[in-house]
Amino acid sequence: EVQLQASGGGLVQPGGSLRLSCAASGFKVSDHAITWFRQAPGKEREGASSIYSVHGGTNGRAIYADAVKDRFTISRDKAKNTVYLRMNSLKPEDTAVYYCAAGERLWSNDYWGQGTQVTVSS
């Protein structure tokens, strides 16, 4: 059974940092594209960052939405079968429920994990 477990959210002050984790079971994170989505209150869900599988010549290259570029870093630990999202210089507008998803293509979401709440506030 494919499962994704997101964790690491919390309350942080503006300018602070958090690291989200997406632990997978039932498949290898290296074999799929993994994406972090987020949904702020009253807004549609949007993609924050997506990382390619290690296959097909893309070898784990990552893509970022403009809103998080240069502040967020997505990475993959094959041994732990986990994908991380390191979030630095957090802003109030980063407040959202963050979800991880897995799929065959970048930004795809064939499988979803549950969300983890990130709140950026002083």
Helical content stands at: under 10%
Largest sheet: 7 strands, mixed
Element-by-element helix/strand order: EEEEEEEEEEE
The computed structural class is mainly beta
Distance between the termini: 40 Å
* Percent in strands: over 45%
**Count of individual helical segments:** 0
**Mean pLDDT over the residues:** 94
Low-confidence stretches: none
| Envelope shape | globular
Q: Please count the beta strands (DSSP E, at least 2 residues each).
A: 11
Spatial extent as radius of gyration = 13 Å
Descriptive account of the structure:
This protein has 122 residues and is an all-beta fold. 0% of the residues lie in helices and 48% in strands. The chain is built from no helices and 11 strands. The strands form 2 sheets. Strands 2, 4, 5, 6, 9, 10 and 11 form a 7-stranded mixed sheet that branches. β4 and β5 form a beta hairpin. The model has no long low-confidence stretch (mean pLDDT 94).
Q: Helix and strand layout, with pairings?
A:
Layout (H helix, E strand, L loop, with lengths): L2 E5 L2 E3 L5 E8 L7 E7 L6 E6 L10 E3 L7 E6 L4 E6 L8 E8 L7 E2 L3 E5 L2
Parallel strand pairs: 2-11
Antiparallel strand pairs: 1-3, 3-8, 4-5, 4-9, 5-6, 7-8, 9-10, 9-11
